[in-house]
Design a protein that fits this description.
The complex is a heterodimer of chains A (about 550) and B (about 300). Chain A has about 550 residues and is of the alpha+beta class. Chain A is about 35% helix and about 20% strand. Chain A is built from 17 helices and 19 strands. In chain A, strands 11, 12, 13, 16 and 17 form a 5-stranded antiparallel sheet that branches. Chain A has a 4-stranded mixed sheet with strand order 1-10-9-8, covered by helices on one side. A 4-stranded antiparallel sheet of chain A has the order 4-5-7-6, covered by helices on one side. In chain A, helix 9 packs antiparallel against helix 12. In chain A, about 50% of the residues are buried. By secondary structure, chain B is mostly helical. The radius of gyration of chain B is 24 Å and the shape is globular. The mean pLDDT of chain B is about 85. Classes of the chains: A alpha+beta (about 550), B mainly alpha (about 300). Chains A and B meet through helix 1, helix 7, helix 14 and strand 16 of A and helix 2, helix 4, helix 6, helix 10 and helix 11 of B.
């Protein structure tokens, strides 16, 4: 009897507590806890960055977004054209494409008042390159002299600073590269090359909790995994000042929810419209939907380390045949609702003609032609073992959908019902793991998002012998030679031409099958205007206007 | 009773170690987590080796497990890949999920038991048939469908709620997600209570009570309900653990940054420290909930005694 009374009391207490807190909290959220939606602040969706926010440690879009708002480097890529323009660089000169003299503009400060000097850059780059700091983008400094001492492939580092970097004055420093690389200054717009304030080195933990940079925004508050509030920095000295009062980046567990929140009017900007919503997007948003080219290309790579796929004339025919068996146009239209464009070369349209994009460089090999495909595969001795499997990771994106469609297309073209099957791997990490362990036995999904808008970036890291992202371990002397020559070329146009010749070698051997160029897609509310995506498919936040 | 509790607590120790070891092995089988950290390109070998050393991944699994457990007892659950302490992640995620679970359990108790009593007392009545049909519908529709439909109707079409829960995740924001999370168990609670009440209605002690002239309300609540609650309490008790772990779907739909979200992220990124840490705590919650259920039996039915 007594027990029952206790239970009843407990239940009542819970009920009261629930009711009380519910009432209390609803007052709060009505008052402004709703995420600071007032004034001219843009409310934008975000994903939880994978790594700590440090310039040389951020290699995915979500963290890159923030760096783009709080940092300005020596160069900046024009948000429209992708061209590298001087930002903090007053001038960068070279006589031999090896030693570069850099002058940093004076009058720039970090948002904590500290001056941006040559030392801010040199210290930051030394930090980024040093093995002991575990920076995932340290290979960006690999062209600078002394990198192999600071960041050896194995064992301990024998130096703490890059010998190629020398501060020569308050605002000047020199960079010595370990090879000729004429277009090197144009890589400096990448976030890894951002300057760092002293605060970063003095109190690293505090800095990572609330980063301080020199860009148009400052970090107002940061709750890891849930929200970052950025506010306009009034004293920002650059010309690309923020047109709004700030940006609230909100982490969403699912981009479908972010999209729902946008349609309900609780969010202003979604920079990744989920594939499932693409069919409704016109009806929901009308012209507030952006679908613009980004520097991303999807390809199918091959395991050239596998005996079945060894690079020779016969297997090149099979690869070409497979390429011709893929109906790119149909897949991009039905599965991707035109957010992808069939690829006809190995770069990206965002480079522009001058930058090295050449539509149609792939030729017939990228045209759907089932008869020719059958013929080529037959001439090449048929598919190894009679069938191919396409490996992909099933955890993100809609990879399963398009891989199934590609296989379907191949099966139809080759008139064999089991010629191609998809081979899913559970997580991205495991997928990468299999690739790095060289365990692939057939073609696999390979995506490439450019680091900087240069044709070099679409070729060298992917196809040069033992390059960082040459996952298929393709190796071709002719290609390597052309790349070296292109890098040594001091004239930009001539360099681009050489790179394109190298790309033709990729084509002739079909080192990877180009599938499609990926667009960036975004949707926004009627509260904001002047929204655009840059060539990296990141919204140009500082130009967004709030009405 | 005290000795019983101590015995039960001691029994938890092997269960705890076994469960964590299993999870540890399962996450490890999935492969090298460092591979996924560098995006679509391979980590350079030196950095990868350095990271492996930092996260202790270069040692054999049994040694990793021992070190991990040693640290756990000092309250150190390791560091997630984004540089955040797992304990920090827990401090943010658990309160949110606990609130969500409380809301769900509240609905289960209030709505589930009420409906169960009403239908149990009126078996065969149209009300009974109606509720039975409703629970059937709830059981057969998957949670994510219920969640998405409610989100679309209440959040977008009618604008009664916000479709996404804010980072504060206060109780009023969690009402709808809590209802969605509770829906399935709620249906079971209703059915369990109904059967139990219907069975006990004809029991001798109820007849005696009625014959003594005890008021109907008192008969139902004190005599009938109290004796019918044992299976229901068992169910709700074990359900608490299941709700916390199973909140992944609901949390994803309504943008709740709770345990489900962290676990999902941890699994995607193959972050051993996060996954093992969170599951360890969930195992503890499950064990404690079960113990509480067993202790509640004695409160409901004084004939049950623990020695």
């Amino acid at each position: 009897m007594r027990g029952a009374t206790h239970a009843k009391w407990a239940a009542c207490a819970v009920a009261v507590a629930l009711a009380a807190t519910a009432c209390g909290d609803s007052d709060d959220s009505g008052g402004g806890g709703g995420g600071g939606g007032g004034g001219g602040v843009v409310r934008s969706s975000w994903g939880d960055p994978q790594n700590p926010l440090e310039p040389a440690n951020t290699n995915e879009v979500q963290g890159g977004k923030v760096l783009d708002m709080i940092f300005r480097g020596l160069k900046r890529y024009d948000p429209k054209t992708g061209e590298a323009q001087d930002m903090l660089a007053e001038r960068i000169t070279t006589k031999d494409s090896i030693t570069f003299d850099v002058t940093v503009k004076s009058g720039w400060t970090f948002s904590n008042g500290e001056k941006v000097t040559a030392k801010s850059f040199v210290d930051a780059w030394n930090y980024g390159a040093s093995l002991k700091n575990n920076q995932k983008n340290s290979y960006f400094f690999g062209y600078i002299d002394g990198y192999e001492k600071v960041h050896p492939e194995s064992g301990k580092q024998s130096a703490n600073t890059l010998s190629g970097l020398k501060v020569t004055g308050a605002q000047t420093f020199t960079v010595k590269l370990n090879q000729k690389f004429s277009t090197w200054p144009e890589t400096l717009g990448y976030a890894a090359f951002a300057p760092l304030p002293k605060a970063f080195f003095d109190n690293h933990d505090a800095w990572v909790k609330k980063p301080v940079g020199n860009g148009p925004y400052t970090v107002d508050s940061y709750r890891k995994g849930s929200q970052m509030s950025l506010r306009k920095w009034a004293k920002y000295p650059g010309s690309d000042k923020a047109q709004n009062d700030g940006v609230d980046l909100k982490v969403y567990t699912d981009n479908n929810t972010a999209y729902t929140d946008l349609t309900a009017g609780n969010l202003d900007l979604v920079d990744d419209v989920p594939a499932a919503q693409l069919r409704n997007v016109q009806a929901d948003l009308g012209d507030r939907y952006l679908n613009t080219p980004a520097g991303i290309i999807q390809t199918l790579a091959f395991p050239f380390y596998d005996d079945n796929w060894k690079d020779n004339e016969k297997s090149a025919k099979v690869r070409k045949g497979l390429s011709m068996a893929i109906n790119r146009k149909q897949i991009t239209e039905t599965i991707f609702q035109k957010t992808r464009t069939p690829a006809t070369d190995w770069t990206s349209p965002v480079l522009g003609e001058e930058g090295g994009y050449k539509a149609g460089l792939c030729g017939d090999a990228c045209d759907y032609n089932p008869e020719e495909a059958r013929k080529l595969v037959k001439e090449g001795g048929g598919l190894p073992g009679g069938r191919v499997t396409i490996s992909y990771n099933a955890d993100t994106g809609s990879h399963k959908d398009w891989v199934d469609a590609v296989c379907n297309s191949i099966n139809k073209a080759l008139e064999q019902s089991k010629a191609c099957v998809g081979d899913p791997t559970g997580t991205f990490a495991d997928f990468r793991n299999k690739i790095s362990q060289q365990e692939m036995s057939g073609p696999f999904r390979a995506g490439w998002q450019m680091d900087y808008p240069l044709i070099q970036n679409f070729l060298q890291p992917l196809y040069y012998t033992n390059a960082s992202s040459n996952d298929g371990k393709w190796s071709n002397k002719e290609f390597d030679k052309l790349i070296d020559e292109a890098n040594a070329e001091s004239d930009n146009a001539a360099a681009v031409k050489k790179f394109q010749q190298a790309e033709e070698v990729v084509r002739d051997n079909m080192a990877a099958i180009p599938l499609w160029y990926q667009n960036g897609s975004a949707g926004y509310s009627d509260r904001v205007s002047n929204v655009a995506l840059n060539p990296f498919s990141v919204p140009v936040y500082n130009e967004i206007k709030v009405s | 009773m005290g000795r019983y509790v101590i015995r039960r607590l001691l029994q938890m120790i092997p269960v705890f170690f076994g469960a964590t070891l299993l999870i540890f092995l399962m996450v490890n089988v999935m492969g090298d987590p460092i591979a996924g950290l560098c995006g679509d390109r391979q980590c350079d070998p030196a950095t990868a080796a350095q990271l492996e050393k930092e996260f202790g991944l270069d040692k054999p699994v049994w040694q990793q497990y021992l070190t991990y457990m040693g640290n756990v007892f000092t309250g150190d659950f390791g560091t997630a890949f984004n540089g955040q302490k797992v304990t920090e992640l827990m401090a943010e995620a658990f309160p949110v999920t606990i609130r969500l679970t409380l809301v769900a359990v509240f609905f289960e108790i209030v709505i589930g038991i009420t409906l169960g009593v009403v239908t149990g007392l009126r078996r065969g009545h149209p009300v009974d048939t109606g509720v039975l049909l409703m629970t059937l519908v709830v059981i057969s529709v998957p949670t994510f469908v219920t969640g998405l439909v409610l989100q679309l109707l209440l959040g977008v079409k009618w604008g009664w709620i916000k479709p996404a829960v804010s980072t504060e995740a206060s109780f009023d924001e969690l009402i709808v997600p809590g209802l969605v999370l509770a829906s399935l168990s709620l249906a079971y609670v209703t059915r369990l209570t109904r059967t139990s009440i219907a069975e006990n209605r004809r029991a001798d002690y109820v007849r005696t009570a009625i014959a003594k002239g005890v008021p109907r309300r008192r008969v139902v609540i004190r005599h009938l309900l109290r004796n019918s609650l044992i299976p229901v309490v068992t169910f709700i008790g074990t359900d608490i653990g299941a709700l916390m772990g199973g909140a992944i779907v609901t949390e994803r739909i309504f943008n709740i940054h709770g345990v489900g979200f962290q676990l999902y992220q941890g699994i995607l990124r193959q972050n051993t420290q996060t996954v093992v840490g969170f599951v360890t705590v969930l195992v503890l919650v499950f064990l404690v909930a079960n113990l509480l259920v067993d202790l509640l039996y004695a409160v409901l039915d004084p004939r049950i005694r623990y020695a």
